[in-house]
Structures are given as C-alpha cells and as structure tokens.
Design a protein that fits this description.
By secondary structure, the chain is mainly alpha-helical. It has helices spanning 19-35, 46-49, 60-72, 90-99, 104-108, 111-119, 126-129, 131-141, 154-170, 211-219, 240-248, 253-261, 267-281, 283-291, 294-323, and strands at 6-11, 39-44, 80-84, 146-149, 179-182. The chain has a 3-stranded parallel β-sheet. A two-stranded parallel sheet has the order 4-5. Strand 1, helix 1 and strand 2 form a beta-alpha-beta unit. The structure holds tryptophan (TRP).
Amino acid sequence: MAPKRRILSGMRPTGRFHLGNYFGAAKNWVELQNGGDYECFYMVADYHGLTTQPHARDFEDDLFDLAGDILAVGIDPAKSVFYLQSSVPEVAELFLLFSMVTPYGWVQRTPTFKEKARQQPDNVNFGLFAYPVLQAADILLVKGGFVPVGGDQDAHVEMARETARRFNRVYKPIFPEPKSLSTETPRILGTDGRQKMSKSLGNVVGVTDPPEVIRKQVLSMVTDTKRVYKSQPGHPRSCNVDSLYKVFFPNDWQHYWDLCRKAQIGCHEKKQILAERIVETFEPFRERRSDLTRKEIQQVLEAGSRQAREVAVETVREARSAVGLLPPLI
Ligand code: TRP
C-alpha cells in the first residue's frame, strides 16, 4: 500500500536562494514539515541541472550553496528526508520505465520545454525534452502524493499524475496520483519589475546573502515608472516594491501605500525601509547559514540519500515486477 500523505519536492541547483525560491516554495516546505501531517522528502535535483549545464562540476558549488540555504531556512534532517537526486540513481530506472508509458504528445505539449528550447537553442537535448518524465519519476519513486511547488510547475505535476494513472492502468495500481500543493503567495517579480525573479535573469534579491548585497539588490529595484518626482503621487498598485511591502509588512503596508499615494514618501526611501526589513527578517537564516560547513551539508545529504534510497529500491523492485521484467539475474 502506498503511504498516504507523503510529500516530495525538489529544486535545481542554480545558485543561492532568492525571495522567489523562498516565498514560492521553500517557506511552504518548512511549514509542511513542521505541521507534522506529512512525511516529507525534499531533494536537490542535480540530474535536472544537467539539462541546461552539461558539466555537473560547473554547478557543484551551487549545489552545496542551495542545500545549505535550504537547511538554513528551516529544513530539518531530523524531520524531513533531505537528499541528492543523483545519489539515488534508481530514479533513472523508473524514468526509463515511465518513458514507455508516456505518449510523445504529452511531452511535446509541455510549456516549459518550449520556453527552455527558446532560451538555449544550441542545446535542445533529449534530457530537456524528457524533463517532466524524470520529474514524474522523482515524485513517484518515493510514492509522493503531494508536491509543494510554485505555480510554474503545475503542468509538470499534472503530467506526473497522468503518468501514475497510466502506469497503474496498464500494469498494476502501485502509485498514488500526485497533486500539487500551491502556496498562496503574491507574485514576486524580479528587481526589473517585469519578469519572474530568476537567477539566470540577474534580477534577484537574496535571502542568505550578506546585508550589503541585499541592500544593493533592493535599491536597484525598478519602481513606479510613471512617477518622476517625489512630489508626485505614486501608483502602488502597479509597483513591485509595493507587492513586497505586502509580504514584509503584512500589518502596515496600507500605511505606506497611503504615504505613497499622498506623495509623502519617495520610492528610494520606501526601498531603503524595505531593504532593512528584509535584512532583519532573514538575519536568523543568515546566521545559521554561516555556521554550516560544506562537510556538514554533505553529511546531511548522505544520510538523507541513504534513507531515500531504501524507499527507492523497493519502489523500483515493485515497478519492475508490475511491468513483468525478471528480477535482475545477477
Ligand atoms: N522542476 C523543478 C523546478 O525547476 C525542480 C524539480 C525537479 C522538482 N524534480 C522535482 C520539483 C520533483 C518537484 C518535484 O523547480
């Protein structure tokens, strides 16, 4: 029987954490872990990293940075299984078995593939195409029934669900049908005020970065482009800085909104106040982060991978048997 309330989620190792990663996913991971209603599996998706960067060495530092940040914001290895995707290579076998029940048309329609293919026209590899099949294998390898992710991942979770359904129908019902658990967060745009916050676009505000870096990033934010002078009333409705006020000043954002509307506060000043608030809010994360050595991070991932692997070996054995393969002869 599949465990009832198991969660799996992952992040690609693309560098240090930013506000988008935190509010879009990790904050929710921590809350779900601490709520105690689910058994949580979280991982760093380094195999997925290879779809965009062919040399894993090139993102090894990012991998440890990301894992350290995830631990610093509150993922606790005593409560969650936190592991490295490529240290549980059984996922590759499940990926292979899933590829046989995944219609070509499903993958072809994935919106993220089309977008990535446009972004890296010189490296449109098969792994990139098959990305959601591997993601389905990630989730179902541990029989994850719930997947806390940002809205941009909904299409992938939906495909994992269809994959589970199809495998269960064609072979044997051994997998849960995963659902996404989305966070109710305001959309956080990058410092350019136009695009999603993303490391590759260089428009991020960090979480565990040093205060001076955070200040610089926040002060570079594009605000209300219609407002030229401080003496003019601002338009908080269309200002990304204001969206962040709602997050960081849940009780007094209205006050700042009014000041802005009445031209009693300038954009620069609003950003200075916001920067200090962000620096202060994340102070405990920054401290915990600076205490973690690379060796400790690696030890946590090792222990987590060992736990995840026990589950994975069992799932793959079951899946092989459902498909009708002989057990490995040697
Ligand atoms: N595709 C996800 C992202 O880009 C990362 C990921 C890989 C993932 N495997 C997963 C997320 C499994 C949830 C479940 O953010």
